[in-house]
From TrEMBL, chains A, B, C, D:
The UniProt record lists the keyword Endoplasmic reticulum: no
Classification via SUPFAM superfamilies: Aldolase
Superkingdom of origin: Bacteria
UniProt xrefs under InterPro entries: Aldolase_TIM (IPR013785), Class-I_DAHP_synthase (IPR052899), DAHP1/KDSA (IPR006218), DAHP_snth_FXD (IPR041071), DAHP_syn_2 (IPR006268)
Enzyme class label: transferase
Organism for this UniProt entry: Plantactinospora alkalitolerans
Protein name per its UniProtKB record: 3-deoxy-7-phosphoheptulonate synthase
Keyword Transferase: yes
Keywords noted in UniProt: Transferase
EC code(s) of this entry: 2.5.1.54
PANTHER family xref list: PHOSPHO-2-DEHYDRO-3-DEOXYHEPTONATE ALDOLASE, PROTEIN AROA(G)
Amino acid sequence: MVVVMAPEATAENIAAVVDSVHAAGGQAFVSRGVSRTIVGLVGDVGDFEALNLGSLAGVLQVMRVSVPFKLVSRENHPARSVVRVGGVPIGPDTMSMIAGPCAVETPEQTLEAALMAKAAGASLLRGGAFKPRTSPYSYQGLGEAGLRILADVRAETGLPVVTEVIDPGSVEMVASYADMLQVGARNMQNFALLQAVGSAGKPVLLKRGFSATIEEWLSAAEYIAQRGNLDIVLCERGIRTFETATRNTLDISAVPVAQRLSHLPVIVDPSHSGGRRDLVLPLTRAAIAVGADGLIIDVHPQPKVALCDGDQALMDTDLKGIADIVSLLSPLMGRTLTMPIADRAAVAV
Amino acid sequence: MVVVMAPEATAENIAAVVDSVHAAGGQAFVSRGVSRTIVGLVGDVGDFEALNLGSLAGVLQVMRVSVPFKLVSRENHPARSVVRVGGVPIGPDTMSMIAGPCAVETPEQTLEAALMAKAAGASLLRGGAFKPRTSPYSYQGLGEAGLRILADVRAETGLPVVTEVIDPGSVEMVASYADMLQVGARNMQNFALLQAVGSAGKPVLLKRGFSATIEEWLSAAEYIAQRGNLDIVLCERGIRTFETATRNTLDISAVPVAQRLSHLPVIVDPSHSGGRRDLVLPLTRAAIAVGADGLIIDVHPQPKVALCDGDQALMDTDLKGIADIVSLLSPLMGRTLTMPIADRAAVAV
Amino acid sequence: MVVVMAPEATAENIAAVVDSVHAAGGQAFVSRGVSRTIVGLVGDVGDFEALNLGSLAGVLQVMRVSVPFKLVSRENHPARSVVRVGGVPIGPDTMSMIAGPCAVETPEQTLEAALMAKAAGASLLRGGAFKPRTSPYSYQGLGEAGLRILADVRAETGLPVVTEVIDPGSVEMVASYADMLQVGARNMQNFALLQAVGSAGKPVLLKRGFSATIEEWLSAAEYIAQRGNLDIVLCERGIRTFETATRNTLDISAVPVAQRLSHLPVIVDPSHSGGRRDLVLPLTRAAIAVGADGLIIDVHPQPKVALCDGDQALMDTDLKGIADIVSLLSPLMGRTLTMPIADRAAVAV
Amino acid sequence: MVVVMAPEATAENIAAVVDSVHAAGGQAFVSRGVSRTIVGLVGDVGDFEALNLGSLAGVLQVMRVSVPFKLVSRENHPARSVVRVGGVPIGPDTMSMIAGPCAVETPEQTLEAALMAKAAGASLLRGGAFKPRTSPYSYQGLGEAGLRILADVRAETGLPVVTEVIDPGSVEMVASYADMLQVGARNMQNFALLQAVGSAGKPVLLKRGFSATIEEWLSAAEYIAQRGNLDIVLCERGIRTFETATRNTLDISAVPVAQRLSHLPVIVDPSHSGGRRDLVLPLTRAAIAVGADGLIIDVHPQPKVALCDGDQALMDTDLKGIADIVSLLSPLMGRTLTMPIADRAAVAV
């Protein structure tokens, strides 16, 4: 059950709703969106109906939830949302590129990759310090030491940091370094993790599970939203099919479908979708043309020695093509390429 | 086993190879490509090796076939091919649009759809007279009467006709009306049909089976090529996955992957991929941007009363968007939009 | 639209229905089932309704078809059917095993495989003379010469012959040798072929397409039934999934699901499902236990030199296990193991 | 890298290995298996090789890990393992049934379901207190209150308790109530959770992710094993495919394939696989016949009012069929049906 507050509702009005729900033995999660505040209720629907919440001051509407997601749905929020990450907007009017190494390995490798990313037009830095790997014998990441490297590189380059968190117990620690928390494909239905990032006070990048339907993906986003965090960016990164020529099958249709069902921004990962360096450029073109709100791309100064997913990382020589195509196609799709913060400051002066 | 003839090989040289193979109890299929002639051998490899074909006059190379396709592979034919359909080129330098009704229903509906298609930039007319339908109780098409309608509309509009053939026994009859024979997704591994269209003397549009790997798709093309017909255009039209939001999942990566493995042109069907009218425009944009050599799109004057796949057919009002985007994006991808023959004639004058 | 005739309807009654339909420009297909005759109509439903067929003599019921299959559905025919192949029953009370080589190679290999099959409890012989292969460079079968070998081996062993047909044009020829016509997985939606085998006067083994839903499989059977042939046996042989440890994924649930939706017998192919010799025995056990009406198993005297699918063919030494388990489990499932005809004759004497 | 200790290795020998690894900056996880102790190393392989661990006392073998799993592989441990849960064995010689309600709702419902389960032959009780649900608006379980109910029902019935844990942070708490910790399909690659249950000192039931390959499933088990816990039971519960007639597709072949690759017991969940009550009995038969080491089945006194997955829960009237078939088929497969502990005690007296 969801309680939609009126635009003019006061903090006291909201608190009164929450208190009523608590008194009835339920749980209430307050989500403050761009245009209004929503209170999500978990518990016995019969008990909640007996409360007659619709009669409380400041309450606009009480909705029974029949679809598996509501707060993230476009039906209830027709305007497409803009999510800001360290000041960088991701939304319907911009093209924002996140780039960086799949895994943080050394300060030098990370800085070099960040500078490559920036030169290619990226305004956000990606890099993994905690790597969820299929085998326990694969490289697992540097942990907190990797986060410190990312923070140093952010200081040097001005690029806000997007990094993965894999355990509810370390969300707070990771959030203390990151500008955006990434939930990876394997954790898309790790509900404890979704709830933890929903409460962490940082924007979230939610990758689609490689065998999740679009409805399940949006339902996972709803878990985050229900904790009061609507700053969610969805990322299509390929689904698992019978085809073996590519690592995954980029579901390019998922971009317009998800944008129609949800007000959240949707970006595309052309690197993990195909798992092949030679596909990154054509899939980037397709992603921009289909209407994606952004891109997330693996780059590495020396892909051959990368500890993780080197086959798909772009090298310096590939990045000119990305930079060119992003500059060329974005304006045709009605979008402004987001520039790195530092450069924008310079421009502003 | 494949025998590659030297560029200067004479008809007699080729005949000598074929005769040797026949004498050894094998079958030989001659394929005359743009730059050279290839003889495909079927039968006992040991027997063929004993023939020492490499020593015959005009033979450049004798290859044992280890991959499932050879004549259509790019390895043996690095230049990407151009296939001409009623004079209209489909290949690396052009953007050619095939459009028309899923099923031919009446002369009026077909003509109206053809005029819509032409106005939207199509240079080729599609239309089904034989419809392979999952249920025997669904509309099965008009048969030869439908082909006559298509021929009449071609005469009126100047658009060459692409139409499906579903039975080896009717290939000759369909080929007498059509400019290009379409093999549908369900028949991609109907090898008797592939062999029949390979011998029919008309270009072939080979749709990817909805659960075929790219390797199986190219192997199916090889069946056609082995009969001496290299005028094959591949068409990606979506694969079957667990996702139910779309009818199929457009495998956009298949376009660059197939173009890398094969010299044949690859086009995209944004209508059947998604099965939803609202997805045709974004998927068309993605297809052009990823590098497709053409498009095939369903249009219908009154989709609501269409006897087949009305949910995905574009109406008059949608076509302006298609025309605009094709004109805008094609030149950026280094392609010239192919114009209808009649108009080109006019221009030429 | 389907017209169900009363049990007491005469040939004249049936002809009258057919004539009416023809007069209205439609097509009528008469199916004589065990308990009643059904006339399937293809054409304009509105025209048919105007005929008021329900008022004709001998007509029990006129049904509009809303699901994609009707004649093969259990809803209209609650009793499960028995299909007889050369006198051998396949149905709810028996366990019938079809075994033999994937491909007929030589008279010796075929006879030896048939004797192995018989010793293991098979009452029907399988063997392919026309092989639909993914690559044109794979072994394609002996053609009619292979059918003659099968006929000879039948004469020697008393085992009726099940063999694949891949082309509508050769159905009549293949039917002149075979006791049962097999439609392979790749041809499950080759509608021209389905219609041809529906008219051939021989029982049909319809393999499930490797990416066909159960509904599509039954709809394919309906194409055969609509031509008047209800002697159809369905065969589950594995579907295509992301799992690569097995060649296909045996959909064991499809057996009870198809038996609930259709009155047709359902058998299982444990050889092609897994594509691994070591899985044939456990999958055979699972198939019998789940309630399958029969089995089809690859055997070969020397799998290592088999021209087709040797990895999955059972050898002599494996067959004792199959014979034992079939004898043990079948009675527990309320089934009698079908014996070869010759032996039954001997028993009868 | 994995260090295999000799059978006669002492605690001091093991400690010496661990200390060496720590000194080199690596991590070492000791797994005490039935026949030998294994030390799993995580860190820089080059550094470890420099240690020359093979020369230390009590070390039998040092293996570089090339496949993604080792401790759970059968290659290194040919004998199939038996896992004991509250004294109940799950392994190659027994048939052990886990049954109970999908979700714990009330003390009465749970007790009633447990008594139903016991009467049907179950020796272990399942019941969910923490439910990972696709939508945050679905019933999420009673939490710790549910665990208390399970403990009470165990005291009353003598059935050890199997229950799901969904968050690394609550593993210790759940383990204080449960006899076996279940990791659900959605959490199969929640590596933080796998590591936490690996350290919890209780046997683990690891469900296969619904789109996980068998190799990924065994790799997930390796994460648990690496923390020193080899008491792992694998559970096949259906994979995601294109087929929609069933909720998931039971991959029956996965049972023999996983048993061949790993020494761990493998059980089957016929309830979640099909998601349909009418399929539970046939799939149970197939599971026993294919060689599964056990079953996990949903039962509910009143499925129509179940808060979770009522469509698939068996009712009292269905259970007689399960009890009969398990008693009939298990001995044929060389297995003794495991009896509930209390009853066995009685028998022992």
